[in-house]
Amino acid sequence: MAKKSTATSSASVATIHDQKLHRGEGGELHQRAEDGAPVLTTAQGGPVADDQNTLRVGARGPALIDDFHFREKIFHFDHERIPERVVHARGYGAHGFFETYESLAAYTRADLFQRAGERTPAFVRFSTVAGSKGSADLARDVRGFAVKMYTKEGNWDLVGNNIPVFFIQDAIKFPDLIHAAKPEPDRAFPQAQTAHDTFWDFISLTPESMNMVMWIMSDRTIPRSFRFMEGFGVHTFRFVNAKDESTFVKFHWKPKLGLQSVAWNEAVKINGADPDFHRRDLWQSIQSGNFPEWELQVQLFDQAFADSFDFDILDPTKIIPEEILPPHPVARLVLDRMPDNFFAETEQVAFMTQNVPPGIDFSNDPLLQGRNFSYLDTQLKRLGGPNFTHLPINAPKCPFHTFQQDGHMAMRNPVGRANYQPNSFGEGPRESPAQGYRHFSAEEQGPKVRLRPESFADHYSQARQFFISQTPPEQSHIAAALIFELSKVQTPTIRERMVSHVMNIDEALASKVAHGLGFKSMPKPADAAMPTRQDLEPSPALSIVERGPKRFEGRKLGILATDGADVRVFTAVLDNLTKQKAVFEVIAPKVAGVTMSDGSWVEAHQMIDGGPSVLYDAVALIVSTNGVADLLKEATARDFVADAFTHCKFIGYVPDAIPLLEKAGIAGDLDEGTIELKDKESVAAFFEEVGKLRVWAREPTVGSFGG
Ligand code: HDD
Question: What is the value of ipTM here, to two decimals?
């Protein structure tokens, strides 16, 4: 017996029946539904009557091949995915502008550096390296910091990282490095982690990676936010001026709000509580008008400096310490607009190191040279054809004229008859020796060889310099990180080989790591091509703590509140947050909100389970006697306080919160970072301190929270 058809389509059918057709200004047929919404169409522009049901023979019969709307819809859906980036798959981008402070004409003829105040549109994509697109934001990993500047002379892509050195010296090793870091091929895990055998196997067999190892084991690889991390062009580049004179240059992005990282114990918890922590942070700050900003600083030097420097300036595993060659601020980068569509912009943006305008050139850094070859290939594969430059996010914003034509998805072709040059029709663009890109004509001569220069052979001295430049808590995090990562390595010889390298960096660090891994004896130091230099001075610029913000601006306070909470303290806290240009979230037993002591209503942002303290830079406990009694029954409320304390955060609390401090086991350990909030003065005192972000002196008392 035939069943009656359901009425799921009746509403939409009725709407379509009633729709009015009218002609638009351009003479084209516009179709509008009653509510003013545009009418759904196929990709061919045909109006769709029913988007709820496929075309069938009878209500319960087979589907019909006539259903071109269904066919097109599913066909397009089936092709929605493009290959994810082979590295840096997980990323998040934003638009903004780059603004030059002063003319750099003496060094470079690049147009964007000619005039003070010149603004250039920019797009930035931040990323992790190893994880897939869907991996969590707080993986311990290097962060990509790729900047596309749409200059008047074509796009300049500065495709950097948040670490100024790299693992390898020659691009030919890149596939090996990435294969080793990615999930192991037979078992397809671990995802977005370096804590496994193949990574440390490769690293321990690659001594040139040792400087980078110190950086990646530091808190640099677990940044608090994209907004609080540095970026680096890594390689030595060249500026070339109008007289064709070259100056070497290294590029550094310095965050206006200072550096900040989370703790490893926090990172693993953040990944569970909010795997999009970094995305959300950038989204929220830009949407609320708190535009993140970085300063571009350049280290400029000539051949004489390069010849006199301790290391080879072409070696991408080395830095030039800022104390030796201070960087100059030359411009700022402000991110002030989120993309309209993630896929169209952030996913399809194609960065290429070889995109440089006239006046910026390459050095012979073998990693950079290899990169210049690689990025074009990857875009072809990922974006499906040579016309990816036609996508709005990749197209230059200056006029451009080529004779390139056809190919998949050509959005524009040269107009006219002559699609070549020279031609005698007087058509098309012509090259310009005066304005066009001129490569710096460096003298190059030598035999064809596969040879690593001897000047690249010192693999340990700068690793040591990085380590001794860290504050004691940062040093202990490096040790804890090494112990953690190597504890996940199942092959004992790999662990030993790694520690044998660390012995060449710092013996005390090596023995701490060996002890943490339960070694019975120390391995012999690894054979080194060159002995580790002990004379390199510490560089305070390498420490995150030294580069901390000393203020709470741009940070987030988590306010744990209950019904009956003291409204005077709450208001004073909000006043101080506004003064400090910081933000907050209210965490309450119920997400709807709380009734304050004066009967006023405050909406909550999170219920306790959804807002653990790891999501905040500091916390305030503004609770009532009754409220705290209820909180004592919540394990998450206890964890909120206990974690904040363990993670060395500042905790402000009203006297009524003391039972919760007791429940969290910290009432007997209160220190200068746990501050009572009673009135305006005590709230102000809390905000005097909170800009320090962490009470590092507490860390030894709470026990290591991991590196
Ligand atoms: Fe790379 C992407 C940064 C070495 C090959 N790289 C990529 C991205 C960043 C970097 C930030 C993501 C860009 C985006 O957001 O779309 N890569 C670096 C840095 C390196 C480096 C700072 C060393 C200093 N990379 C490197 C080498 C090679 C590559 C040596 C190959 C020889 N990188 C690629 C790539 C990617 C890429 C495979 C993948 C997706 C893409 O290019 O667009 O071509």
Answer: 0.99
Choice among 69, 88, 196, 278 that is catalytic: 88
Tell me if residue 341 is catalytic. no
pTM for the whole structure: 0.95
d(CA 559, CA 565): 11
Instruction: Name the active-site residue from 69, 95, 155, 161.
Output: 161
- Look up the CATH number of domain 91-181+211-390: 2.40.180.10
| Alpha carbons 383 and 501: distance in angstroms, whole number | 41
By alpha-carbon position, which residue is closest to atom 19 of ligand 1? 160
> Looking at the domain covering 556-691, what would its CATH class be?
alpha beta
**Ligand 1, atom nearest to 373 Cα:** 32
* Beta-strand pair 651-653/154-161: unpaired
Protein residue with its CA nearest to atom 26 in ligand 1: 371
Reply yes or no on whether 88 is catalytic.
yes
For domain 11-78, say whether CATH 4.10.91.20 is its number. yes
- 415-423 LR contacts (CB < 8 Å, sep 24+): none
Confidence band of 530 (pLDDT split at 50, 70, 90): very high
Domains of the chain by residue range: 11-78, 91-181+211-390, 556-691
Measured between alpha carbons, how far is 414 from 15 in angstroms, rounded to an integer? 45
Segment 57-95, tens digit of pLDDT? 999 999 999 999 999 999 999 999 999 999 999 999 999
